[in-house]
Design a protein that fits this description.
The chain has about 130 residues and is mostly helical. The chain is built from five helices and two strands. The protein has a two-stranded parallel ribbon with strand order 1-2.
Amino acid sequence: MKKAMPLVKENRRDTGDAYSFNWSIRITPDLQMPFEPSHENMANLKLYPDQPVEVLAADLRRAFSGIVAGNVKEVGIRAIEEFGPYKIHGDSEMMRRMDDLLQGFVAQHRMKLPGTAYIPCYEICA
């Protein structure tokens, strides 16, 4: 990152963009829209690498948002209690990596408070 700073400064000077905030950045609408983490919406996420990176990034954001909702938000917790864990489908390698990451969060007590057993609100399906 440090190596690229001269290029960033040059670009911001050339475009008249501020050094303190990137006004010229464009974020796709998919990354800005709220996500309703229902069982249907979670099951319909497309977590496959053969799509534009911004589309995949938006669906990964939605998947993690749904997991947070299922863990801590009242509406998500109630949905999990009523319908069972969210089913998350995707590319087998990507799902393996996602599961490794989430299991690491569990081991570090980032999913629940230490001393309480974590019951996943999701099921990884390849």
